[in-house]
Amino acid sequence: MVNPAIQNLYQSQKVFFHSGKTREIGFRIDALKKLQETIFAHEKDICAAVFADLHKEETDAYATEISGIYDEIKNAVSNIRDWAAREKVPTPGFLMPSKSYIYKEPFGVTLIIAPWNYPFQLLMMPLVGAIAAGNTAILKPSEWSSHTAAVIERIIHTAFPREYICVAQGGVEETRSLLELPVDYIFFTGSVPVGKEVMAAAARNLTPLTLELGGKSPAIVHESANLHTASKRISFGKFMNAGQTCIAPDYVLVHETVKDAFIAALIKSIQKFYGEDASAHPRYCRIISDRHFQRLMSLLDFSKMVYGGKTSAADRYIEPTILSPADWKDKIMQEEIFGPILPVIPYSSLDDIIDKINKRPKPLALYMFVNDKNIRKKIIRETSFGGGAVNNTIMHIVSHHLPFGGVGSSGLGCYHGKYSFDTFSHTKSILRSYNLTDAVDIAAPRGGKFMKFILKLAR
Ligand code: NAD
Predict the structure, then answer these.
(1) 141 Cα–ligand 1 center, Å
(2) Which residues pair with 252 in a beta bridge?
(3) Cα of 76 to ligand 1 centre, how many Å?
(4) Range 2-9 contact pairs with CB under 8 angstroms and sequence separation of 24 or more
(5) Which residues pair with 323 in a beta bridge?
(6) What is the pLDDT of residues 344-398, one digit of tens each?
(7) Is residue 309 within 8 Å of 342, Cβ to Cβ?
(8) For residue 178, how far is its CA from the centre of ligand 1 (angstroms)?
(9) At the top level of CATH, which class does the domain 218-400 belong to?
(10) How many CB atoms are located within 10 Å of the residue 141 CB?
């Protein structure tokens, strides 16, 4: 049973959408600019809230939560007229004399549900696409990042009337209730198990959706890799946000001949980034909640620890930690880690690890550190994953030219840049015919001799 306040909110958005206001490109551009101005005015509040939720230092909060939204808004404002323009496409000869067009149509009322790990960015980024494409939006931030959720509500309700864009707070029950609404599009970012629930709920109303999910993203360190680069970029991608990043390298597969040198380089990189005591480093984050901290503690296998392992429940602190040699059968290899613990599995056969990756759910990201062209091509060709990088980690997410999304159990659909606009638009095909004689007249049931003749010609 949908809560009556939510039901009213939904109805008011439906009415607003049908007023036609959001179809005007000028209205969308103004809304994007308004969003940018309001975020700008609240930058300090956003950074303070992200610090309260995740102990994330201000520069990092700005870099990972805010600056990407500005880039996305700027790109949308510059290109929206092109993206939204009717597209003329060729018409096959047998449909002549007609013309063919593709219209970009907003879906209507959209529901955007976000997780807690980049609590501001992961709600605002899809919102930019929803606005650019001419939709209204109901935003559901995560209940675990409650400080950021409160600032989001303030920003959105300062910038927009609720019948256009609004924030609905709450946890599991409230989200389930929102999912009962027959909205026109759902954009969900979160875990695989909840993604399944969201898809089942969407199926009940046949609502189209995007699922941005997670999973275990491997990093392969080939024997041809530059170990300095590999260690530096793996520690950057893994320990940023204390490992609570959907595309963080979840585990490392390192060739056995370079394993020891790689681990030594990795330890050096961690110490260079966070010092000997990461708990005292201003740029090292904390685990979001006691519950998430306890889950991570249950994955720590002290017998395999080669670095780190210091923890503090009171502070929800887990030191950057390396487990080696890890094994595919280890408990930590059975679920997405989503924390600062890095298992390192040595391998001897590339074919064998490709086979093992392919037998598991398709990862959201895959990283390969390799300086051999044929090996690079082989890994890209023979494994399926959402997206990734060669000789890098996580940075593929920051380019609005690259679609971001998963495949198989790591997600459905993609966004960023023009892909966000496309995600939030229905592509409506129109064949425009005239009153002259055309294919319909030929195909109309009357004798059929001429039709047979035409089909013969078309063969
Ligand atoms: P989550 O799935 O627990 O929660 C996500 C959202 O769903 C929250 O707003 C929450 O309130 C709601 N929710 C939780 N349980 C629900 C239920 N049973 N029914 C309906 N709604 C429910 O995810 P999380 O713990 O907030 O985030 C971590 C996960 O998100 C990780 O798996 C991570 O990989 C993934 N993630 C993916 C991306 C991506 O872009 N692909 C980005 C960030 C995080």
Answers:
(1) 10
(2) 219, 344
(3) 26
(4) 2/177, 2/178, 2/180, 2/181, 3/174, 3/177, 6/168, 6/177, 6/178, 6/181, 7/181, 9/138, 9/162, 9/163, 9/166, 9/168
(5) 305, 343
(6) 999 999 999 999 999 999 999 999 999 999 999 999 999 999 999 999 999 999 9
(7) no
(8) 15
(9) alpha beta
(10) 27
Domain ranges of the chain: 4-213+410-427, 218-400
Say which amino acid occupies 20.
Answer: G
Between CA 60 and CA 56 the distance in angstroms is 7
174 is catalytic: no
Task: Please tell me which residue in 246, 285, 319, 336 is annotated as part of the active site.
Answer: 246
* CA-closest candidate to residue 229, choices 193, 256, 262, 254: 262
Determine whether 414 is an active site residue.
no
- 8 Å CB contact between 117 and 245: yes
For the chain, the straight-line distance linking the first and the last C-alpha, in angstroms and rounded, comes to 57
Phi-psi category of 163—alpha, beta or left, where left has phi over 0 and alpha has psi -120 to 50? alpha
Q: Retrieve residue 445's tokens.
A: 């049931």
Q: Is 426 touching ligand 1 by the criterion CB < 6 Å?
A: no
pLDDT of residue 9: 95
Q: Please give the Cα distance from 148 to 116 (Å, whole number).
A: 9
Tokens representing 99?
A: 């013309």
H or E stretch at 295: helix 290-297
Which architecture does CATH list for 4-213+410-427? 3-Layer(aba) Sandwich (3.40)
Residues of the chain with pLDDT under 70: 446-448, 454, 458
Does residue 113 have its Cβ closer than 6 Å to ligand 1? yes
State both tokens at 60.
């990092």
Q: 73 burial class (0-12, 13-18, 19+ CB within 10 angstroms)?
A: buried
